[in-house]
Amino acid sequence: MANVWIFDLDDTLHDASAQIFPVMNRAMTQYIQSQLGLAESDAHHLRQHYWKIYGATLKGLMRHHNTNPHHFLQTTHELSNLHELVVQTKRLRNLIKNLKGRKVIFTNAPSNYALRVLDLLNISDLFEVVFSVESSKFHAKPSVRGFQGLLKYIKAKPSDCIMLEDNLAALMTAKRLGMRTIWISRQLQKPGFVDFRLSSVSALTHLQL
């Protein structure tokens, strides 16, 4: 059976922490300030708190404050200068093109943002599906329901899937479901539920699965 390569987007296929996440985090903090009437420091702490508990700030806002997810995503992911913020990954197109099997994107980001980033990386045509946070009905990773929605949508068994991701909580869910797991991280120690650790997606060319 052919492999199904499931790629996370931010901090997996490109370095979002360098320039994108600082801008996005500020936008999310400002959104929480505006919507909930909080001071900046309180909004900042609440954003981080929900991210730690739920794996996504939006999930906490929806659950506890009845936040409209579409409005939140549109407001916080506008990034009119996105083309200036995306850090290119060397030889990324050839690397993904040469992988044998199906390739999909599974991201907690909204569809519009994900497609813009993939276009800027010049790899959007290499993926059959971009499964965004809207696609998951806002069951963001590491939620099992999000993974189950993806598997149903792409008609794939977990045992055929290889998940590439920078977030350990998401990889833990993937492993529990029966996927093979690749952690994109510069940390040297890898937990038992991670099959392989790569310092960047570029190192995938040297991996023997």
Question: What are the SSEs and their pairings?
Answer:
Blueprint: E1 4-7, H1 16-36, H2 40-54, H3 57-65, H4 69-76, H5 82-85, H6 92-97, E2 102-106, H7 111-120, E3 129-131, H8 144-154, E4 161-165, H9 168-177, E5 180-184, E6 196-198
Quick summary of this structure?
The chain is α/β, with parallel strands linked by helices. It has helices spanning 16-36, 40-54, 57-65, 69-76, 82-85, 92-97, 111-120, 144-154, 168-177, and strands at 4-7, 102-106, 129-131, 161-165, 180-184, 196-198. It has 2 domains: 4-14 and 87-206, 3-Layer(aba) Sandwich (Rossmann fold); 18-82, DNA polymerase, domain 1 (Orthogonal Bundle).
Fold and architecture overview:
By secondary structure, this protein is of the alpha/beta class. It folds into two domains: 4-14 and 87-206, HAD superfamily/HAD-like (Rossmann fold, 3-Layer(aba) Sandwich); 18-82, DNA polymerase, domain 1. 45% of the residues lie in helices and 12% in strands. It has a six-stranded parallel beta sheet with strand order 3-2-1-4-5-6, with helices on both faces. Helix 9 links the parallel strand 4 and strand 5 (180-184). Helix 1 (16-36) packs across helix 2 (40-54) and helix 2 crosses helix 3. The model has no long low-confidence stretch (mean pLDDT 95).
Question: What is the CATH topology of the largest domain?
Answer: Rossmann fold
Class by alpha and beta content: alpha/beta
Task: Name the CATH architecture of the largest domain.
Answer: 3-Layer(aba) Sandwich
Distance between the termini: 14 Å
Q: Which regions contain 5 or more consecutive residues with pLDDT less than 50?
A: none
Q: How large, in whole angstroms, is the Cα Rg?
A: 17 Å
- Count of distinct structural domains: 2
Query: Element order, helices and strands?
Result: EHHHHHHEHEHEHEE
CATH superfamily of the largest domain: HAD superfamily/HAD-like
- Strand composition percent: 5-15%
Basic shape: globular
What top-tier CATH class of the largest domain fits best? Alpha Beta
Percent of residues in helices comes to 40-55%
Count of β-strands: 6
Number of helices, where a helix is a run of at least 4 consecutive DSSP H or I residues: 9
| Order of neighbouring strands in the sheet with most strands | 3-2-1-4-5-6
Mean pLDDT: 95
Largest sheet: 6 strands, parallel
